[in-house]
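Risk register update: the risk of archive-format incompatibility is retired. Evidence:
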Amino acid sequence: MSEVVPESAYEREQRLYDEALEIPAGPERDAYLAKVCGNDATLRASLDDLLACDEQADEFFASNSNTLVQLVDSVPIVYPASGANPAIGTNIGPYRIVELIGEGGCGSVFVAEQTHPFRRKVALKIIRIGMDTKTVISRFEAERQALALMDHPNIAHVLDAGTTRNGLPYFVMELVQGASITRYCDENRLTIPERLRLFAMVCNAIQHAHQKGIIHRDIKPSNILITVHDRQPVPKVIDFGIAKTTDIPLTENELVTQNIQMLGTPAYMSPEQADRSAQGLDTRSDIYSLGVLLYELLAGRPPFDPEKLSSCGMSEMLRILRETEPPLVSSMLEGLASKDLATLARDRGTDAHTLISAVQGDLDWIARKALEKERARRYESAHGFAADIRRHLAHEPVVACPPTRRYVLGKMMRRNRMVFASVAAMAVVLVIATVVSTRLYWGEREARQGLMRAQLLQTQLREEADKRRDQAEELLRLAKAREAVTQAVVLLRDGNFPAADKLVEGAPLIRPTPEGADVFRRLGEWHESQGRWSEAAERFSYLVKVNYLDPSDLPSLDHLRAGTVLVESGDLDAFEKFRRSMIDRYANTTDMRSAERTVKVALLVPAGGDLMRDLDRLIDASVDSLKVYTHERPPEEIEDLDVWRMTSVALGEHRRGRFEQAEYWARRCLEISKNELSREATARVLLALAVFQQGHHIEARSQLELARAMVPKDFARRVEDEDAFNGWWPDWLIARILLREADALVHQIPEASSARAE
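Archived output:
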């Protein structure tokens, strides 16, 4: 017989509230409440408050107002007369409610303690009693699904979800304990550059949400909390309670927000959110809200006074949001009282004059671009917004304003001080040479020896001037190349790949920069997507050269792109030099992903003894890693990266002539189904090569036929569709290259001979 679980106080209150709603208001309901509550005055007061809220809601929604406005921060919260929340102390699934940390118009957020399978503190959000309408539940489920879609270090992670015994949905998130971003910055007196770096991290988080098709719609300081990890501040974006999708619904029951309903916080709301006639909010609404956040981080207040907006009446508030241009950040600061400005500057680790000077120019333009009334004039993405912030921090020209010649020249001088210093030095040397030559000319009559010394000195000075001129010309060429890359970034952002490619074609090699790496990576992907292998190889070769300072494993991915394209283009001489340099770079790496990629790329073409000896350590390290992490483990517990490593090890063992080991790892890879067709095709080709070398020609032909059916014959696609072939294109290219090699080997022996041999 199953044990009856006792009803908690929270569940009892929910049940009595639901039953009371079924009884018409009046003496009959009063009699029912008197009966079920008895002498429990606290319970009676709580039920009376909830029923009163229900009646007020009915009157509100039944009114004839044509502008139903729901301001998410101004919904009243009704507490029981006792002041205690009935959920505290109760259990919801494996979570024990400990403390109420926040309530909104429809939901409550609690600190909860997970009791099993392990103990930890989490944040649990649940719909408030009496608010479980279809609309509220749909929005709640949409928030839950939005959080589940995202996986970013600067967005609060969802850990669990479920439904209470009363049918109320809830979800569990990581517990983010920290101050709002503006409060944290002020309390810790962060400087303007430090605030901008934090803000760029917030932009990256919002960009991730946009890439998942989610618009936040309520970006404000209280929804961005700062936690500290390893003494470094880390922003966390929370509260996707009014988030909206850009394409498909988050849930099957998601409701469409009527155009007469306005969701958000007025001071941070975009003009199109406030415009009931606006059609189709998109991600640029969040760009506006990010602009308000940046404005507040710089000026200490949003561009429009929240108190004035809430007190001026609905129509005036909407007019301000839609029509009034916000002042520049520097103008806002200049209009403050001296005492307020001094306090604001102190919170930013500087003085009033320096603060105003810091925001004038770039930051004024950046904030104004984000706050444009016409969304087409704003930044197209949060990534573009963050990129302009980083350009400002690096003293590069920003996109936010039409650059004048003086502005661009000033930026170029700050970035290329050595260039202009060399030009100035060259001019000084030339002047000195001219003066000395002139004086020696007039002294020719006095002494031939003096003339000879003068001629010698003149020659030396000219040689030095020529040397300086050559250096200056080289630096100027590099400066022009960087400018070309900067312009290419803008063209690529607009999707103009041909113009960007023409701009950087034949340009001198720039010094390593993330911006340059991104340009050549995207151009290489574009040429590859059109099947232009030689051009793609050239762009990827540039990419490898300008990205060698990146400490992450990203450069090894760039080597993977470049190596596969070089082989496919047929330029094997260039590939020999390339793989030699790649082995030299990663021969002693401890990063297993870089080791795996080095083996895979370097052995796309058979290698000689010296190269194989250099690769032995990487192959053996990969084998040892696989033995540690995959030995006696069921397929479903093996990490995807380890399955990819099996293909690299199989290729390495094949090139070393250890065909039985190559066969083992290829078969092991095929046993583990991970829905990666490109990996399966590669594994089948490697298996065919291994068994063929052992004399099993029929099986080799069979495996090749299976692999050939998987590998696409044409790689043409849109450059944005990296996974157009159910896999990453370099992995498919590897499969195709090895398939050609296997075909050439296997078909040396006729099928009839193969059958007789076996």
